[in-house]
Fold this protein.
Amino acid sequence: MSEKKPNDEDLKEVQRLLITTEVDEDKHKEKIYNQVKYKMQTETLHNNNQKKDVFFMKKKMKHIAIVTTVSVCLVGGFSTTTYGQEMIESIMDRFQIGDMEVTQYDQLPVNETNNDENASDTDREEVHKPSVSLEEARDTMETDFGVPTQMPDGSELSKIVMPPQDAFDVELQYTKEDELVSSLLISEGDKGISTDEEVKKEDIADKTVYFVNGIVLWEHEGLTYELYQMSEEGFGTDSLEKIIWSLASGEEYSEAEQFFTEQGVAAEEIDQAITHSIEKNNKLKAGLGEEAYEKLQSGEFNEEEETKIREEAAEILEKEGK
Amino acid sequence: MKYAQSNIPAYRSVRTDTAKKEMTDLEFDQIFETYYKRVYKYICYRINDQYMAEDLCSQVFEKVIVKYNTYSPEKSPFEVWLIAIARNIVTDYHRSMKKGFHFSMDSLLDMVSFNSSPEEEIVSKEKNKDLFQALSHLREKERNIIALKFGADLKNSEIAELVGISSSNVGVVIYRSLKKLRERLNVRRNGHE
């Protein structure tokens, strides 16, 4: 049985279903209204919520502290981020990058978790995780996440690690001459970073890229990417642009690899060819939008659409000098 | 039901001053009447438990009352602020449920209403069951954006502001999620046939 490919009408039907589905809200409306109104009138609301706020905040800070201790261990003291349970100094700003929340404080509280001596054994164990393959990581995360086809500094992907108890994080370690050069953390789920340093924001490769405590963060297809750089210089804008444009899922990479192999491209040139092809496709996807890009790839469009999309695609490629 | 029925359609027509103040009963009634359905539908699209949806919805409006004096109209429209509170409460709920998350389809079915003939109800019930099951296969982020779009009825630009991605990226996620839902629904439909 061949699988039916969704067309515009199919998608409109799903949209209609989402818009028109009734969730029986009237059944609960009165109860909810009365509950809240009662608390409001008896002034029991404030006390309850204040208690809850403290509880949630403590919980949140504990979570952040654990995540950060792991990150601080990873970068070997590279980051100057500090955390504490006794927080709530003065929050200057908040930034949301995918599921990651960056909180910028006027001044961070003194804390113990950033102190290596206080890092627990469990936190240290996180650093020494066994390596897995990209396929295994993608299977565990149930996501065909994108990975840079190559790093502009010539470093190579040498190790892929996943925390054993968390199926939503993967860390890619890049080395050059046996030295760890950078580490790319790809994650799904809520995370947090606190800083009292400046949070820089730049538009790079059609993404909003944040620079926090020396960590480069961006969001790609619903996942948060955190790039930790071990060298003093770090990656410049051009290098980051190359990294982001070259992000390819396993499927995209395999397709490109198969294509160039069939075309008889020499083995030593195939990586370069794949990178160029992935970059070109990502630029087209960003410029045209997902829908038009897929039509361009599949060739399933009417005459009017075809001319428009092809012209736009040509313009994008021309701008890129391709 | 004892609501102070109001013809004022939206919050911003009620409150134009920027002075920080406590919420009055009348303001609460207007806000509840205006936004209740969107908040409740958003929560239902994000979680799979009818009774919990009721509880979380109460929590949202309680929080809105408590935090009301911190709302700043210059920073974001009221509905975006309110839905952000709902989003945070659902996120906290998911976080607490991460260890051992489960749901029952019966509870999902109780969530949807059927105000038509028995025959139509059966068809509708199946469709809604399929939709909620398909929603549960989306990734958390995709489901959130779909719930913000079709449950909370926010614009792409408002979702972008809330989620921290670009408007065009929101469009991409919605398109991709709709495709996933369509595929899931097709698989189930073919299964029924």
About this structure: Chain B touches chain A through 61 residues (CB under 8 Å).
